[in-house]
Records
---
Amino acid sequence: MSVRFAGYASVFDRVDRGGDVVRAGAFAASLQAARAVPLLWQHRPGASIGMIETLAEDARGLRVVARVTHPAAAKLVASGALTGLSFGYRVTAARGVNPRELVALDLAEVSLVAAPMQPLARVIQVVKE
């Protein structure tokens, strides 16, 4: 079983649980580099559960379309039991505090997670295949 989904790994201009806010354009340089970005389970290195088909910034945030090929993870996503998305990154430019504004990020991975740091970072559409 595999499942294809679309959602947002990051939502712009909303403070997350850690006190950070990602600004539009923060992923631009990283996306332009066109490096492969893995789809992971709960940010665990080496725990790849599928593949990312597209990553792009739009007006709302970092939109991701991906395919989950790991059977257990695919079942959770397909049933709606797992909807959280998150991303791993390195800050390359930030400003301010409370909230800290993240203006340039080096994207390392996207993860399906139980409890995203940004509550609005979610799977929004699922296609069972």
Note: The longest strand covers residues 100-113.
---
Amino acid sequence: MATGATNDRIAQALVIATGTVKSHVKQVLRKLRVENRAEAISQYLRLTIGSRED
């Protein structure tokens, strides 16, 4: 998701159905309490890159 891959691309890489990817993405967004992929990626980058700047 952080690389900008589509649901179809993620599904192909993981050899799972696109619907399964959609379900997992929806759950990730819910758990992160964000509205969309862009917000999730932003939060991911803040948590990973931000921790290296300390």
Note: The mean pLDDT is 91.
